[in-house]
Amino acid sequence: MKILYVTAYLPQGVNEAFLIPEIRQLLNAGHEILVIPRSCRGALINGEELLGRTCREPLWSAQVWKGAARTWATAPSRTLDAVRTLGASRSLAVALKNAAVVPKALWLADVARRWHAAHIHCHWAGTTATMAWLASELSGAPWSFTAHRWDIVENNLFRHKARSASFVRFISEDGLRMARALGVGPEANTVVLHMGVALPRKAAHARGAGGVVLCPARLTEVKGHRSLLEAWRMLKNRGVRGELWLAGDGELGPELQVLTKRLGLSGSVKFLGTVPHEKLLAMYGEGAVDVVVLASLDLGQGNHEGIPVALVEAMSYGIPVVAAASGGTAELVVPGAGLLTPPGDASAIANALQDMLSDGDLRTQLGDAGRRRAVEAHDVVRVVKDLEKAFEAARPRSTLAACGWPQAEVLPRNLSETR
Q: N or C, which end of the chain has less CB nearby within 10 Å?
């Protein structure tokens, strides 16, 4: 099957590395994948392997405008009707964001037609879904989208998109509940299908010599680093040995470094910056990490975790986890598969980490149970098999002839080359 896979930035940027195992597995299953990032921003850190399968066209470019013009010229009335649906946006800010991607959406319809795409799938229910939705309307190719968390809260024409899509995938039960609160469901086309990870062949328990606790999270408010640093100060005051490694960058970086110094933690806290995904997994495989922690907060209005892939990956290696019960995290870290704490409770985080660091048997027990949980619910091979079934069950929205398209032509070679 030829699938257009629409992302926000991937292969560029650092925030969508968790999509790579899914794309890789779809390729392994024999599908043709053309990755289409909505925007081309950010460093190329994790997605280099996808470059040969990506069309990195900027949001606005001569090529985009040419493709948009072809779509308009071929079916002007249908194009106008499709674009008018964006007028139902709930706010001016959302309407402007959607308007900004209209040219690329029309271009994407042209790509779908000329590449003979059998399906369009996108991640995020915001403007990437706006692009995919319009492209489906104008090409006849069925479409679907994966909704995560913030993009549900944004409510960018969510109900309209859900009704139009062949299926809507939620990565957690919590996400589905959030969508239901917006009036979505219980349609038959909604499904909870977790993000998958590539499972290592065996667990790689840490050697336990260094007492290394790793927090793999962007340095942003929702990740709760202040609570984590306060918990670490408590552990140091109790004489607990070990190091805390913070893997990630973000707007709170300078503030957190100042806080680390003020708490007297400079000797035991390391800021690693952005760690490439493969390097992070290598750290797990080499046994360099004893415990993984996420101290995420619930900031209200849906601003909380989904099911963090960062935790799933650590658990797949048999590394025990400590996590705040924010959003969908409790769906992953079920009793016995890790230690959960209340969001924002530094004392509870400190106690859980102390239990982990002081008890090797507990680390092994929870690590093994966590790996079983990852295998059970997040094996990317199984996840992609379910995704394939959903793709195959989708049907074209209409015939291309009914859309007013001429006979499809072969996609020009340079369109699928990297830019």
A: C
